[in-house]
Amino acid sequence: MSGIPETRRFKAPRWISTEAGQWAYEVREEWRLTANQTFGVTERRLLLAEAEKLHKHAGESQAV
Asked: What's the whole-model pTM score?
């Protein structure tokens, strides 16, 4: 067991396996609420694609 404390406040569903998806679930409340109500595979893929865009944009904003 690691001595590093868990910093996440929310436990993302298993289908959110990408770094961007985990980030969006933790940081974006609207995205998280939508994800919690999404059951279709196609809709989940679209949400993860959106998370990738949001994550990339957030990274670009911080780099400037």
From this structure: 0.80
- For residue 12, give the nearest of 34, 38, 32, 40 by alpha carbon: 32
Q: Is residue 24 part of a domain?
A: yes
In a domain, 10, yes or no: no
DSSP, collapsed to helix, strand or coil, labels residue 23 as helix
Q: How many domains does the chain have?
A: 1
What tokens does 29 get? 């409340």
What is the Cα–Cα distance from 6 to 9, expressed in whole angstroms?
8
| CA dist., res. 25 & res. 51, Å (int) | 9
2-17: pLDDT as tens digits: 555 556 788 999 999 9
Instruction: Assess contact for 23 and 51: CB atoms under 8 A.
Output: yes
Q: Is residue 11 part of a domain?
A: no
